């Protein structure tokens, strides 16, 4: 009886320690800064849209605040596992804008544990710089649907070794969509394509 009590209080203590480690510690500082840089990039580059009557949903990122004590794992559009960001859903922040959005994809470099990145519906036409998409080794799902991307972005995705799901639906892909086996170097099993 006594031993059982000791073991169960020990278990309770260990569980409490684990919860403190994962829940309350919050996200990595490098990832918190990374998220703020993404927000800054969008605000700096595109906030003028709202004054022109185009839709701009930066309010969705209101919880992304520059405060060291703020746990970015509970921020909107962010999902963590064991204190690191595994899902980032940055869809539909910039809509219906006539000018192309050129995204700085280097901003995603700090998120080494990322499994899912959703960039759907942002009027994105390409990436800036020639570095290509950062080699996020664990990225499994990349949703680029409903943008203005053409086939030229495919070669920039070469470093995504774990990619299994790529959604390029509703973009402006052309007839050269399957150039010399580029796409076959990915182990894609779901692939949505609609002209
Ligand atoms: C893109 O983002 C990276 C990482 O924050 C930064 O170092 C680089 O200067 C940015 N490039 C441009 C052209 O803004
Ligand atoms: C990305 O976001 C869009 C818009 O909310 C949603 O329809 C889609 O299912 C999301 N993609 C993934 C892979 O979660
Ligand atoms: C594809 O998109 C890139 C980036 O926006 C652009 O530089 C290029 O001219 C486009 N190619 C075609 C064939 O439209």
Question: Could you give the topology of this structure?
Answer:
Elements: H1 2-24, H2 29-46, H3 48-51, E1 78-81, E2 84-89, E3 101-103, E4 116-118, E5 124-127, E6 141-143, E7 165-167, E8 190-192
Parallel strand pairs: 2-4, 3-5, 4-6, 6-7, 7-8
Antiparallel strand pairs: 1-2
What's the alpha carbon Rg, rounded to whole Å?
20 Å
Structural class: alpha/beta
Structurally, how many domains make up the residues? 1
The CATH first-level class comes to Alpha Beta
Organism: Medicago truncatula
Signal peptide: 1-26
Subcellular location: Membrane
Pfam families: LRR_8
What does this structure look like?
The protein is an alpha/beta fold. The protein has one domain (28-192): Alpha-Beta Horseshoe (Leucine-rich repeat, LRR (right-handed beta-alpha superhelix)). Helices cover 23% and strands 15% of the residues. It has helices spanning 2-24, 29-46, 48-51, and strands spanning 78-81, 84-89, 101-103, 116-118, 124-127, 141-143, 165-167, 190-192. It has a six-stranded mixed beta sheet with strand order 1-2-4-6-7-8, with no helix packed on it. It has a two-stranded parallel sheet with strand order 3-5. The longest helix has 23 residues, at 2-24. The protein binds 2-acetamido-2-deoxy-beta-D-glucopyranose (3 copies). One 2-acetamido-2-deoxy-beta-D-glucopyranose is lined by residues 125-126, 150, 152. It is found in: Membrane. This is Receptor-like protein, putative. It is a single-pass type I membrane protein. Its main location: membrane.
């Amino acid at each position: 009886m006594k031993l059982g009590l000791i073991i169960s209080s020990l278990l309770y203590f260990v569980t409490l320690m684990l919860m403190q480690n994962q829940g309350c510690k919050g996200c990595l500082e490098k990832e918190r800064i990374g998220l703020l840089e993404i927000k800054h990039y969008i605000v700096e580059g595109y906030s003028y849209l709202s004054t022109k009557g185009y839709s701009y949903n930066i309010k969705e990122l209101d919880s992304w605040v520059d405060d060291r004590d703020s746990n970015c794992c509970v921020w909107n559009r962010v999902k963590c596992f064991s204190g690191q960001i595994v899902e980032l859903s940055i869809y539909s922040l910039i809509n219906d804008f006539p000018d192309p959005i050129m995204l700085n994809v280097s901003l995603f470099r700090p998120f080494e544990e990322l499994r899912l990145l959703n960039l759907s519906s942002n009027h994105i036409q390409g990436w800036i710089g020639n570095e290509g998409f950062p080699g996020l080794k664990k990225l499994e799902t990349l949703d680029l649907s409903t943008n203005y991307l053409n086939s030229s972005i495919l070669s920039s995705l070469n470093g995504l070794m774990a990619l299994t799901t790529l959604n390029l639906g509703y973009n402006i892909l052309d007839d050269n969509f399957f150039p010399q086996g580029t796409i076959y170097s990915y182990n894609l099993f779901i692939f949505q394509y609609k002209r």
